[in-house]
Specification:
Layout (H helix, E strand, L loop, with lengths): L1 E7 L2 H13 L3 E7 L11 H11 L10 E7 L8 H15 L6 E6 L6 E7 L13 H16 L4 H8 L13 H15 L5 H9 L3 E10 L2 E11 L5 E7 H4 L5 H17 L3 H14 L3 H10 L2 E7 L5 E8 L4 E4 H4 L5 H16 L3 H10 L8 H14 L27
Antiparallel strand pairs: 1-3, 2-4, 3-5, 4-5, 6-7, 7-8, 9-10, 10-11
Helix pairs in contact: 3-4, 13-15
Protein name: Relaxase/mobilization nuclease domain protein
Organism: Bacteroides intestinalis DSM 17393
InterPro entries: Endonuclease_MobA/VirD2
Length: 414
């Protein structure tokens, strides 16, 4: 179990962060200590603020009276709400906050359920609670709780599962050793469900993997060769057979890992965190570049695959938070390559097409459903509006307007 402790001055900020999870049905209140519930049994930010204010004296001896703690069990630990509440209570008691008012929230927004605790770190006189060697004591407490509840030693496991990897650098030499270390570390810590997703993961570390098929003495065989690349994805130097790097990165081992990954992703619902994060960024990103940058800031790399005409035909997300690689289609139809093609290249295609035929090719030929996305539909409507002088109805170019009839001159009688 990993504990993270932060201190600050904003009680509202800490409470609203957790209450937002509750309001969005991504969290719940597990436990409260020395707090008053409302009549309906629920907790609101206003009610919590009032309760904490009752325990905060006017004369504070510290500028940061608020403490916010998160307790993160190992992903393989499955704990009930009662167990999580008991763990939170024992942790606070041992850390010296057992008599303080505090709120315990369970967060369910990612597959690894965890808890957050909000409390105050001053006593009734305004004096700061003893925080000497607080982080050291916290580690000791989490180790004791791991033993008591039979939990995985998350800190050691996390260090092994989340290596700090660097890109393979062909110029640095000893490429075979670099490839072996990088590929083994990635296979040991990331989940992927296809060879395409595996290749996408390797590519961001300047590694290329290729399947090799053939026959030896009449028997078919399958293998993998690995190569170093530059930042443009161009191969550098000679490739290496997987057997020279290690059995754990060979064809059969990768196929077994793919099957195991598929089961883990389904059983632990690992797609949800990625889907929610990508969906939120899609709503706010104004360009492809911003989309990539914003996702990277949330721990997700995105790779687009394009053809010679710059059409996006594939997208892969690499979520470094839950160590999962997912093609866009696995997240749902709203995250498919067609959606991103319309989102990032649709406006440019329309801008170059001045004919109705070109617009139909873009809106139907490039979209198997034949439906327009909201952004594309608006662009088409706007373009038709310009062509027809502001009328929202698309002009019918198949009908040629009849020629105007000449008025007959009337003979004047004198």
């Amino acid at each position: 179990m990993v504990a993270k402790i932060s201190v600050g001055s904003s009680l509202f900020g800490a409470l609203s962060y957790n209450q937002n999870k509750v309001d969005e049905q991504q969290g719940k209140v597990l436990l409260s200590n020395r707090m008053f519930e409302s009549e309906d049994g629920n907790f609101s930010i206003r009610r919590c603020m009032e309760c904490f204010d009752m325990h905060l004296p006017a004369d504070l001896k510290t500028e940061k009276p608020i403490i916010h703690i998160s307790l993160n069990p190992h992903p393989d630990d499955v704990l009930s709400d009662n167990q999580l509440a008991d763990i939170a209570k024992e942790y606070m008691d041992k850390l010296g906050y057992g008599n303080q008012p505090y709120m315990v929230y369970k967060h369910e927004d990612i597959a690894r359920h965890h808890i957050h605790i909000v409390s105050i770190r001053v006593d009734d006189t305004g004096k700061k609670i003893n925080d000497k060697f607080e982080h050291v004591r916290s580690k000791q407490i989490t180790r004791e709780l791991e033993q008591k509840y039979g939990l995985h030693p998350a800190e050691k496991k996390q260090a092994a599962d989340r290596p700090e990897l660097k890109k393979v650098d062909y110029r640095a030499g000893d490429v075979k050793h670099q490839l072996s270390n990088t590929v083994k570390a990635l296979v040991g810590s990331y989940r992927f469900q296809s060879f395409t997703e595996y290749k996408a993961l390797l590519s961001i570390y300047n590694v290329q993997a290729e399947e090799v098929k053939g026959e030896v003495n009449g028997k078919p065989y399958n293998g993998i060769v690995y190569s170093a690349t530059n930042d443009k994805g161009e191969k550098q130097g000679n490739p290496f057979k997987s057997s020279s790097l290690g059995k754990s990165v060979g064809y059969e081992a990768i196929q077994k890992h793919i099957k195991k990954s598929a089961k883990d992703i389904q059983d632990k619902n690992l797609k949800e965190r990625t889907r929610r994060t990508v969906g939120a960024v899609m709503k706010s990103a104004c360009s492809r570049e911003q989309f990539i940058t914003d996702l990277k800031g949330k721990g997700i790399d995105v790779l687009f695959r394009q053809n010679d005409t710059s059409r996006i035909y594939g997208v892969t997300f690499i979520d470094h938070e839950n160590r999962t690689v997912l093609n866009g289609s696995r997240l749902g139809k709203d995250f498919s390559a067609n959606v991103f093609n319309d989102l990032f290249t649709g406006s440019r295609t329309l801008a170059t097409g001045n004919s109705k035929a070109e617009m139909q090719e873009h809106t139907q030929g490039n979209n198997p459903t034949g439906h327009l996305s909201e952004g594309t539909g608006k662009a088409v409507a706007g373009l038709f509006g310009l062509l027809s002088g502001g009328n929202d109805t698309p002009p019918d170019n198949s009908q040629v307007p009849p020629p105007k009839k000449k008025k007959k001159k009337q003979k004047r009688i004198y």
